Amino acid sequence: MSDVLDSLFSNIEAFGYRCLHDSDHTLQVIEGGVKELLGYDAADLIGNRLHAFGDLAHPEDKQRLFEAVDLAVEKRGPWDLAYRLLHEDGSYVWVRERGAAVFEKGTLTYLQGLIVSATEEMSLRTELETILQQSRVSNSEIIGLTGKITGSIRQLTMLSINARIEAARSGDAGRGFAVVAEEMKKLADQNAEWAYVISEKVSHVQKHGQ
After folding, report:
1. Do residues 108 and 99 lie in contact, with contact meaning Cβ atoms separated by under 8 Å?
2. What pLDDT does residue 1 have?
């Protein structure tokens, strides 16, 4: 199953995880492209062998991240966060995480989720904000940004479909794939919503000018 997950994640910088709900978010399982995204070997992160996952969060983001996760756990709902993680080369990279707590017989057993690269997402948002702040908004530039996001949507959608196919083939053993597929679908939906907002702004500019 690990080989199939690695194959699913091969086209994007992303990985699935399972961790404890402790001060380090101690990782128990990592599947996918953590090496491609963060530069670390998965074995060095599992069990805090060389690095505690919780310590990789940017100092400016760490408290916000942990508080959001704790609140979601308390409400037994999911979390969706963009924040920065320390890369093995010493730089920080933007990621987006969707996760949820897993309870068994009312007891919290672990946290699990999906982490994907958000570098392009944050770059696009910054670029869009810059364009919209200019005295004259360029429709062609905004449409170009929409195209980039829709490309990302297509990629995430295909990965979601692949994960669902593998889940169906694997029966009970494929439940993990179903979770991954659902998280990918949510990310795709979120990108679709952002693309819609951009399109609406273009339409407004075309009708009303600046």
Report:
1. no
2. 44
